[in-house]
Every structure is written in structure tokens, then in C-alpha cells.
Design a protein that fits this description.
Number of strands of chain A: 5
Number of helices of chain A: 13
CATH class of chain B: Alpha Beta
Number of helices of chain B: 10
Shape of chain B: globular
Order of helices and strands of chain A: EEHHHHHEHHHHEHHHHE
Radius of gyration of chain B: 18 Å
Helix content of chain B: 25-40%
CATH superfamily of chain B: P-loop containing nucleotide triphosphate hydrolases
Largest sheet of chain B: 6 strands, mixed
Chains: A mainly alpha, B alpha/beta, C mainly alpha
Radius of gyration of chain A: 21 Å
Structural class of chain B: alpha/beta
Strand order of the largest sheet of chain B: 6-7-8-3-9-10
Low-confidence stretches of chain B: none
Low-confidence stretches of chain A: none
Number of strands of chain B: 10
Distance between the termini of chain A: 18 Å
Oligomer: heterotrimer
CATH topology of chain B: Rossmann fold
Order of helices and strands of chain B: EEEHEEHEHHHHEHEHEEHH
Structural class of chain A: mainly alpha
Helix content of chain A: 55-70%
Strand content of chain B: 25-35%
Shape of chain A: globular
CATH architecture of chain B: 3-Layer(aba) Sandwich
Mean pLDDT of chain A: 81
Distance between the termini of chain B: 37 Å
Largest sheet of chain A: 3 strands, antiparallel
Number of domains of chain B: 1
Amino acid sequence: MNKKGNQRKERIARGIKARSDDIYALTSYREMWYLLFPRLVPIVGIAILTFFLPTYWKKVVLSTCTFAMLAVSWDFLSSCGMLSLGQALFFGLGSFAAGSLNHYFSLPVYVTIPAATLLGAALSTLILLPVIRLRGVYFAMVTLILPLMFMRLIEATKILGGTEGITRLSPLPNVWVEITLILAAMWVALFALRRFISSDYGLIFVSIRDNDRAVMASGINIYAFKTQALFIGSAICAFAGAFMAHAYQFTGMPVFAMDYSILPIAASAIGGIGTLAGPILGAFILVPLSEFLREFGPLRIVFYGVILVVCVVALPEGIFHYLSRKYSEMERWVKLD
Amino acid sequence: MNILEVQGITKSFGGVTALDNVSVNVQENTLLGIIGPNGSGKTTFVNIISGFVNPNTGSVFFRGKNLIGLPPYKITNLGIGRAFQMVKPFFHLPAYKNIVVPLFAPRVLASSGGGFGDKDAVALDVLEEVGFERDSSVPYKPASVLPHGYLKRLELARLMALKSEVLILDELFSGLSIAEVTSIIPIIEKLLSEGKTIIMVEHRLKELFRIADKVIVLNYGKKIKEGPPKEILEDEEVKKAYLGVEV
Amino acid sequence: MGPTLIYGLINSAVLVLMALGFNLTFGISGVANFAYGAIYVVAGFFAWSLINTFHLPFVLSALIAVVVIGFAGVYLYRLILTRIRGLVISEVIATFAVSLVLLELLRYFGFIGSKYTLPVFVNGSVEILDTYVDIQRLLIVGIGAVVLFVLYLFTHHTRMGLAFRGIAQEEHTSLSLGINPERIASWSMGIGAALSALAAIVILPLGTVTVDGGYDVLITALSVCIVGGLGSTFGVVIASLIIGFAQQLTATYLSSHWTMIVSLVALLVVLAIKPSGLLGHQKELEERV
């Protein structure tokens, strides 16, 4: 209801919201705090919370952060015009890269994780290179099929550990390192991507999605840009995969499972597509939730599916948009004249 | 000096022949008008020159270099800029950011020494040249709310930001009021005075003929007449093509 | 050589039937129906329950299943896709989500009868009265041919079929000719679903009805369509023949485990050489002006 008698609702940006890229524009601690607060709270809050949780739930946080990274990557890719139905592909490639490097070449953890990130990203980009030139639906279809095919491939040919997978991978030094690493990675990914997209260079990616023809006609090779975006997006997922390989000391067929592809999309749908922070919020809602729903088995996925449909059809804005709107704008009733 | 030589372009889509053996030479620093009834192949012609469509036969030479087969972004970087008939800006971005995008073209980066200078300032300068009032809020509005006249200027600005040598304007005047057209023409004349070559596809014949050096007429994919505006105006075949009856 | 030829042909027919519905929906209205695999499985279980729970004769069940599922497809479109038509991301996510909901619901309610786990529910397989499974296989080829023929007649000689082709070629022009694209799109979804149901009824007798089969069918359909070229019926046929025979040869001379690799290799090869598919005419970016 936006009208009340002879009044209407009006939204105005809050006066104290500072719009500037440069801190010299801020004039008071209050304004600085206003900007920093929403960022500090989750970072500090989650970190503190995690340290006090029992081991099982610590592992859940690891898992959540992993999914959050997958979700952020998905959101980034979709902002660049690439709809990925197969984050599992990038995740799985990273995981197997790390596992193989560790198992077959005996490389230590601090080498395998960065190496697997790059390797996984390179492989993912190479495989999807031909599809970048085509319509978006093709990209979606191919990313959907590939992880499932890889899974069946491994099952059939028994390479890379076959159905049992590769076990007894080197662990990370201790659980504190694990938590710190993945949390740091997640926040770095988020803030780096946000900065990137709002920079002038990042503009190009968004405009490719808006009108790729015009970008072409502006002298820019959109395929080169899409390739870059794909590399960045898949690198984030590959890192997550490599990390998980060592956190669980295991890699195998399940890394290509559809869960890794679906949940990021559901998290983004709930949290707010296009916001980059929304997907993280969505992941932090969905993953713990799915732990509670674990006993319901497949019903979990039904749940994701329903959320997806509802969000996509009825509620495209997402939670994050709503929250950020509330935070940075205020509503008031204004008399109609 | 012919900056652009189009030779024998033929293009059919399925069963329809859009262009039939069309050739034309464009002299440097002139304004060529392309006119013709709807469906005569004007936009296809432009698409082929700018690289969005490949012809069945024929070639396009830009300063002696064959453009056929090159993707649009390469052609743009060689110096041919193409404005679209249906303007679809980057809706999510403010108007001036729309112009920042082309500043990333290799062509522009190379000429400015490859540095990441203040792109915003450059963009705002270009917009001012094209008629956006500098000190107003117009350049900062999201492109989605700009009225039609401004959108057309935005397209023109894009080409200017690209420092294109040949500007192909596809129905720039369409949808503009006479006052708006009158205010845009000086910009075009300024571009000509700077040495640029301009190709304009138009329906607004009166305004076009005031500034064009040469005009070609397309009808059903064939070039039926080529010459200075005065000759075109008086040509019987052209009149018949447009009006469909004996005049 | 003989058996390889025959079984290769049968395999190809299976692939054609699986891929046709998806290809049609996409070719006509540009809707990539990711719920396709789920519809296939649902059709299978639906027919099963008609036969086993309601004890209806097979032919009747088959007919009812195809028709009902067809209409379900139409309503699926009207319910969900209408609002998001044209937003590719949303379309894909929505249909995919529907697929998840349907398949995992089935899994949750225990429609699992595979031979690898203790069946919680009775094995849901559909059998033909005729005991010769081979005839069933030959039937697949026959039905495949008939379906293709009927489709050809339909799209070339009936008003609705011609409208379909019009929409597929140029939607805006069709609009101005009085053809309602929304109606056509929903019908294209319905026909795709019906074809999926038909494929399910004809093919499932060869094995069991499994929930995971839904994902497999989707993968297969997508692969065949991508290789053959989305939107091109002829392309799908050719792709099916190529993949079908390749799979059969692999199964005969290597092992049946490698058949999945054949699809993967075919997919990767096509992507590397002609990404829009063998007979596909997905224009690359430049031509979409």
C-alpha cells in the first residue's frame, strides 16, 4: 500500500550515506562508521562465532564458506552475461587438480592449492572457450552437462580413483588455519570482485550483458573479456575445490555432484542476483538450513527447487536488495498535492 | 582519395536478396547519403561494412585493406564507427559511463599512450561536444531515462569517443524534431571540418540533402542512382521508387 | 556386423525419440525446457501407476499418459514460464528448478526400485504384453520413424504447424500476422512434453523407471541436440545416428562403460569445430543485429 488517504510513500536516500570512492570525502567518524559497520559486522561476527563452535559446526562453516564462494562466482559470471549451471565443473576440476597433485606428485598443501586454482581455472576456461561465442543458453546447457558427464566418465573408466576417489590427501595444519584461510578467501573474493565490477574496467563486463552488440561496435573484443571473466569466476570455484580436497582429505566423483551447481544459484536467488554480497548471505542461510534438513533427504533439494522457482518468478529482487534499500533509503509519507 | 571502396556486394538471406551487386566509392572527408524505401537494403549494407554480416560476394576496402571477414570490433579499431538505428544504450550505467566503455578500445588506448587517464573527464568532454549540458545532471542520469534525442546524441558521442575516421550513422535523424535536427547538424559539420568521412543512411531527405556531398539510392537491393543531391531530387526513377507511381 | 547394425539403429532411434521433444520446444519458441528429463520420468511413473494401481489396459494408459503429460506441459508453461518469457536466465533456472522438485519429490516418496538398493517401493517398470523384447526394440525404430513423418506432415501441411515454423523463423513478423506467440509457445511446450512421454513409454520397457534416469535423459537430449544443432530436426536425426552407432561400436568392441565417453567426445568435438551443431544455424553474435 503506497497511498494512504491523500498521502503517498516516498523514498529518499539517507542523507548521511556518503557516495565517494575516496575517503577524503568523508567528514566524520559517524559517516565512516555508517559505511564500515555493515561490512565489519559479518566479518568479525562470523569469525568470532566460528571460533566458539563445536567441531562439527566448524566443518559446516567451512562448507558454508565454500558454497558462498561458489555462489559469488556464479553471481559474477551472470553479471557478465554467462549463466552457469555447472559451478560443480569448476569446483570439481580444482578439487581433482589438488588431489592429483598431492597424491600422484606428492606436492605439499601450500603448493597444491594455488596450483590447483590456476590449473582448474585454465582447464575450465579452455573447455568452455568455444561456447562463449554462442548464445547464453548454450553456455548453460554445456555447463550443466559437463560435470555430470565427468562423473559418469570417472565411474566408468575408474581413472582418478574411480568410484572410491582419492583418499588420504594431506590435511591442512590445523582447524584454525582452515577456518582462517577459507574465511579470508571468501571475503577477499567478495570485496575484490565488488571493486572490480564497479571499476571502469569492470564496467565493460556489465555492459556486455546489457548490449553486447554495442560493446563490439565500441571496438572491444567481447570474447576476450568474457574469457577473462570466466577465468576469474572459475578460479574462485577451483580454489574452493582445492581447499575442500584438503579439508576433507578426499576427492572423488562426488565433487561433480549437482549440489555444487544448484545451491549457488539458489543462494543467489534468495540473496539477490547481481549484488555479489547477496549470494553470500544466501549461502549462509541455506547451508546451515540444509544441515537441519539433512534428515529429510531428497526433500532438501525439493526445497531448493521451490525456492528457486518462487524467487525467479515472483521475487527477483532478493533479500540483499531489500536490506540494502532499507539501510540506505528511508521511506516516509508525503502529502499529495 | 577514396577512403572506402565497396565493390560488388551481394547478400541474400534465405530466399530474399537484400543487396544485389552494390558498389560505391566514398571519397575522404565527404558526406555520403544512402537513401531508399524501406526494405531496400540500407541497413544490411551498413551491417556488411561494419562487419556484423558477411556478404555472399564482394569486398569492402578501407584504405586498401579488405574488411570482409573481420569481426566488428576489429573493424571499429581500424577506424570505422557505426551508430545503430535502434539505440540501446547500456541501461544500467549513467549516460557518461556509456561513453567510458568505448574508451577501452585498443584504438583509443593506443592514441592516449595506453595510460589509464581520467576517463570520466574525457567522456564528459565528448558529451559536451554532442550537446549534453555539462553542468546539468543530464550526463549522470542512467541511460534508461534519457529521452530519444539524447539517446541519438549518445550514439554519436560513442563514435566520437572512438575517434572514428569514418562515421556511419544509421538513421540518426529518425524520431527527432526539426529543432533537434537543426542543432545536431552543426556537430556533423564540425566533424567534417575535422577531416572525418561520414556516411548517413536517412529517410529525412530534406535535411540530408543540405549537407550531403553525394547520395546513392537503393531500391530492392540494387543501387539505382548515384550523384549529387540535386540530381537525385530530380530523378524520375528515384521518385518512382519512393512513391510507387508515375510522377 | 548384423547385430551391430541393428542395435546401432535401435540405439539411434532411442536417442532421436529422447531428443526430439526438447529440440522441438526450443526450435519453435526458444524455450529450453530443462524440466524435460523430469517430465520423461514422471510420464513413466504415471503410466506405471495407471497400469498397476488402476489396472487399466496398457494401450489406454499409454494414451492417457501422453495426453495428460502433454497438457501438463502446456500448463507448466502457462503457470511459470509466461511471466518470465524472454528472460533466459530465469527460464532456465525455473525449468531446472521444476525438474529438481519433480525428480527429488519422486525420490523422497520412495519411487525407487532400482536393483542396486533394497526397493522401498515396488519396482516401477512398464512391460509390453508381447514377450519378445526384441520386437519392442524394433518398435522403437518404427515409432521413431512414424513420429518423424507425422511431425513433418504437421509442420509443413497444417495451419498450426506452419504457424509453428513461422514463429521459429521470425517471431515479430508472425506477431503482426495475427499469430499468438504465447499460445504457440505453450503448445510447443505441450507437444515437447507429449513427445517426452511417448519416448518414455516406448523406451522405458527396456529397463526400469528410475529417478536418476531423468537426469540422464536430460543430458542425452541436450548432448544430441547440441551435436545436431538446436532447432534442427534433421540435425537431431543425424546426430542420433552418429552417436547411436558410435556408442554401439564402442559397446561391442570395447565395453559398455565407454558409451558415455562417446557422447562426451562427440560433444567436445562439435564444440571445438562447429559449436552451433552439425546442422545448427545458431548465428554467432555478429549476425544478431
